[in-house]
Design a protein that fits this description.
The protein is an alpha+beta fold. It folds into two domains: 46 residues; 149 residues, Sandwich (Immunoglobulin-like), CATH 2.60.40. It is built from two helices and eleven strands. The structure holds 2-acetamido-2-deoxy-beta-D-glucopyranose. The site of 2-acetamido-2-deoxy-beta-D-glucopyranose has 5 residues, from loops. 2-acetamido-2-deoxy-beta-D-glucopyranose binds next to loops.
Length: 202
C-alpha cells in the first residue's frame, strides 16, 4: 500500500512541471490576447468619434406636385452638417455629391464645392433642391400618388464626400464618408420625420 502510493506520487511530480509550463504559456497567451483586445477597443473609442462625418440634421419638403399628365415637381431643402471632431487638424471636404431618389428614380442632385472645416468644428450646408419638371411613367405616377394620399413620401439620399486631414508636414489621412438613407416627409405640411442619417466612414 505504502509503496504504491509513493510510486503514484512520484509520477505526479514528474508530470507537474510540463503541465505547469503549458498552463503558464496558455495564461500568458490569454492575457496577451485580452490586452490586445482592450487596447484595440480603447483605440477605437478614442479615435472613432473624431473621424469626420456628414449627417442630415434637418429637411423640409417645400413643394410637391403631381399633375394629371404625370409630371412631378418638387422642391426640397436638406440641411447637411459636415463635422470634424479632430482637435488638431483641419479637414478638407471635396467631391460632395448626393443624389435624391424617389422610388428608385433620381429626381435631383446635390453638389457642393470643396470646403474646409476647422479644428473641432462643423459647417452646415443648406441644400435647396429645386427640381425641374420630371415626367413620370404611369406606374411611377401611381406610386407617388399613393404616397401623397397616405401623406408619406420617402426619398432616398445617397452619395458621399471625400475628406482629408492634413497632419503637419507628415502627410494626410483620407476618408470616404458615404450616406445612404431614407428621408421621410409628410407632403401635406412638408415636415420631415427626423431619423438617423449619418455617414459611414471607409
Ligand atoms: C405635419 O403632419 C404630420 C402628419 O399629419 C403631423 O404628425 C405633424 O405634427 C405635422 N407637423 C406640423 C408642423 O404641422
Amino acid at each position: 500500500m505504502d509503496r504504491k502510493s509513493k510510486f503514484s506520487t512520484s509520477q505526479e511530480r514528474a508530470t507537474n512541471p510540463l503541465v505547469w509550463c503549458a498552463a503558464i504559456i496558455c495564461t500568458v497567451l490569454t492575457v496577451a490576447v485580452i490586452i490586445a483586445g482592450v487596447v484595440t477597443f480603447i483605440g477605437y473609442l478614442v479615435i472613432h468619434p473624431r473621424v469626420p462625418y456628414v449627417s442630415v440634421i434637418d429637411a423640409h419638403l417645400d413643394r410637391m406636385q403631381l399633375d394629371y399628365a404625370g409630371v412631378l415637381e418638387i422642391q426640397v431643402t436638406i440641411l447637411i452638417r459636415a463635422r470634424n471632431g479632430n482637435q488638431k487638424a483641419h479637414a478638407s471636404f471635396s467631391e460632395s455629391t448626393y443624389t435624391l431618389g424617389l422610388n428608385g428614380k433620381v429626381v435631383a442632385q446635390l453638389v457642393a464645392s470643396p470646403f474646409e472645416v476647422g479644428k473641432n468644428s462643423w459647417v452646415d450646408f443648406n441644400y435647396v433642391v429645386p427640381s425641374s419638371p420630371i415626367p413620370l411613367g404611369p406606374e411611377e405616377a401611381e406610386d407617388v400618388d399613393a404616397g401623397l394620399k397616405k401623406d408619406l413620401i420617402i426619398f432616398d439620399l445617397k452619395g458621399g464626400t471625400r475628406v482629408r486631414w492634413r497632419i503637419g508636414h507628415l502627410g494626410s489621412l483620407r476618408f470616404l464618408c458615404g450616406l445612404d438613407c431614407h428621408l421621410h416627409f409628410h407632403p401635406l405640411n412638408g415636415t420631415y420625420v427626423p431619423s438617423r442619417c449619418t455617414s459611414k466612414t471607409k
